[in-house]
Amino acid sequence: MLARLAPDLGFTVVKRDIDADPALQQRFTAIVPVVAAGDTVVAEAPVNEDVLRAALESAFLAAEQRR
User: φ and ψ at 11, to 5 degrees?
Assistant: First the structure.
């Protein structure tokens, strides 16, 4: 799903193994899968593609406005 959205929205997908990082494991273990843009969680299970697209667009717009 993220691979389909990445070209349209211009982002790179980075997979993280939360079990390899105690801080990530503590933060996200109950909500896997989770999608974050920077430090902002934009979606958690179950993930709907339309909702995810809207959340990512909103997160990217907010990040641009902070620059």
Answer: -130, 165
Pairwise CA distance, residues 16 & 11, whole Å: 16
Give the DSSP H or E segment for 36.
Answer: strand 34-37
Q: Per-domain residue ranges for the chain?
A: 2-66
Phi and psi dihedrals of 39, rounded to 5?
-95, 0
Q: How many CB atoms lie within 10 A of CB 24?
A: 15
Task: Name residue 35's beta-bridge partners.
Answer: 43
Kindly report the backbone phi and psi dihedral angles of residue 47, in degrees, each rounded to the nearest multiple of 5, phi listed first: -100, 125
Q: How confident is the model at residue 32 (pLDDT cuts 50, 70, 90)?
A: confident
